[in-house]
Amino acid sequence: MKQRVPVSTIMTTNVVKLNITDDLTKAESLFKKHHIRHIPVVSGNKILGMLSYTDLLRISFADAVDDNDEVVDTTVYNMFTVEQVMAKNLVSISPETTIKEAAEVLSNKEFHALPVCEGNLLVGILTTTDLIKYLISQY
């Protein structure tokens, strides 16, 4: 396996994002439309937090709704803002971080996605799925 490969070679650069002023209904819609589980929360391109589908499940009965169903009961979502539900204490990595280093971070933490930033600016996202696809490509 290659040693010092940067995450920039496998990260997602066309990132689905939420603006800090967006609501949770929009978040639910984006999760389902794009079949993703993590959405960075930004103001412009500055990252402020990360919202996971699990975060939504914690405050709602979203798991009782079919993943293919476009209709969502938004009653619970109207009680919270994106900022209240998102993770704020982020661990981020740079595009130059090696894939091995990123894998070590993810294996030692309880999350499954890392924002890839240059300073405070979001330039990509690396997920455990990206890592698995990379590992598969090595065989």
TrEMBL record:
Residues 11-70, 86-139 form the CBS domain. Pfam families: CBS (PF00571). This is CBS domain-containing protein. InterPro entries: CBS_dom, CBS_dom_sf, Diverse_CBS-Domain. SUPFAM superfamilies: CBS-domain pair. PROSITE patterns: CBS. SMART domains: CBS. Keywords: CBS domain.
